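Below is a filled-in request sheet from our internal design queue. Each sheet records the structural input a requester submitted and the sequence that came back. We keep these sheets so that new team members can see what a complete request looks like end to end.

REQUESTER: design group, bay 2
PRIORITY: normal
MODE: inverse folding
CHAIN LENGTH: 364
BACKBONE (tokenized):
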């Protein structure tokens, strides 16, 4: 199985064998920075033969609520959704088209980040906006990083020996993009991202949640066009906008430790938004059995985990437990009556592989 994860800043190619092992891999810069068709051709020539391909697609809108086998009709529908996730959907579509040109007979399946959140309850998905916005424009909460949240919640259940799932779980996907999900018995009941992947937590270059009145103010008083506002909120905000130095958490921390006041503020805001977001997700669940950190920053930074868990003692979480070092998927909290804290490697590739095999099996 070829798995293509074409994100906003990179393209990850994986070939997964029947034992769920990575048989070949290659990481590339974003699709805008490389000749993706040529890179795909070279990778396929060197990798073991593949029978099908699965693509991570960030936004499925209201139409795509489960993985789908791609054809001309679905391709056109995906094109129409590109504006909902302008950093993410277009690269995925480029990968689909390039692979179709290279291997026209190869079955391709789109797997959507929004699908995991499709059954969130009405209070969690509904915005308090006019009916014509909700029904005519389809404005609602969708949620994202669903492939990662689905994998990490299932993997957490395995690590904790929970059958079949952890009753009340918060998953924290913390990378260049970041979001939290409240997962009850394996199902998403709330999440921090909304109509687009711009909402929610502070991210590398994205603002996260912001008062819509501030956006209107920037347009009215600053004379900014919608495109200028979009560019600023997507590419020049988040950790980069706050620190003035970088959107990379590692560089922000290094600058903060070197005395950079803006970088220190950027890190503090980043941590604060995650911490209060965790509390909000616990409110949606009515309690907490486990907190899972995943994504590059969530997996790699013991300091981040410790600082997020600080002041969450009222949930039974102690920060020193969440700072435990180690490698691989693991429980980093000590045995106790309180919620477990875990670290799980983000494996969207395995989640895509699972979905593709299910779709092809059902298609006969």
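RETURNED SEQUENCE:
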């Amino acid at each position: 199985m070829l798995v293509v994860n074409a994100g906003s800043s990179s393209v990850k190619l994986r070939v997964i064998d029947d034992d769920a092992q990575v048989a070949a891999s290659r990481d590339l810069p974003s699709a805008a920075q490389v000749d993706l068709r040529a890179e795909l051709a070279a990778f396929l020539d060197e990798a073991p033969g593949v029978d099908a391909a699965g693509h991570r697609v960030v936004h499925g809108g209201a139409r795509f609520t489960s993985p789908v086998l791609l054809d001309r009709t679905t391709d056109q529908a995906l094109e129409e959704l590109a504006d909902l996730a302008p950093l993410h959907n277009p690269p995925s579509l480029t990968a689909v088209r390039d692979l179709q040109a290279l291997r026209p007979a190869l079955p391709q399946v789109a797997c959507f980040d929004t699908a995991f959140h499709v059954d969130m309850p009405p209070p969690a998905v509904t915005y308090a906006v006019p009916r014509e916005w909700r029904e005519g424009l389809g404005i609602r909460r969708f949620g994202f990083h669903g492939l990662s949240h689905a994998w990490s919640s299932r993997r957490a259940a395995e690590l904790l020996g929970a059958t079949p799932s952890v009753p009340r779980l918060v998953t924290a996907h913390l990378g260049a993009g970041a979001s939290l999900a409240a997962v009850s018995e394996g199902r998403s009941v709330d999440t921090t991202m909304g109509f687009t992947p711009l909402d929610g937590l502070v991210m590398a270059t994205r603002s996260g949640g912001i008062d819509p009145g501030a956006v209107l103010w920037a347009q009215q008083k600053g004379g900014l066009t919608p495109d200028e506002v979009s560019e600023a909120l997507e590419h020049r905000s988040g950790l980069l906008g706050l620190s003035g130095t970088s959107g990379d958490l590692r560089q922000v921390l290094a600058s903060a430790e070197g005395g950079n006041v803006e970088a220190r503020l950027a890190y503090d805001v980043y941590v604060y938004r995650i911490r209060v977001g965790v509390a909000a997700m616990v409110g949606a669940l009515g309690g907490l059995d486990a907190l899972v950190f995943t994504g590059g920053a969530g997996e790699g930074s013991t300091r981040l985990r410790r600082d997020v868990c600080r002041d969450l003692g009222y949930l039974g979480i102690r920060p020193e437990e969440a700072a435990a070092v180690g490698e691989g998927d693991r429980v980093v909290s000590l045995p106790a009556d309180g919620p477990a804290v875990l670290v799980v490697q983000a494996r969207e590739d395995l989640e895509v592989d699972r979905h593709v095999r299910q779709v092809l099996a059902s298609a006969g």
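SHEET NOTES:
- The mean pLDDT is 93.
- The longest strand covers residues 22-29.
FILED BY: M.R.
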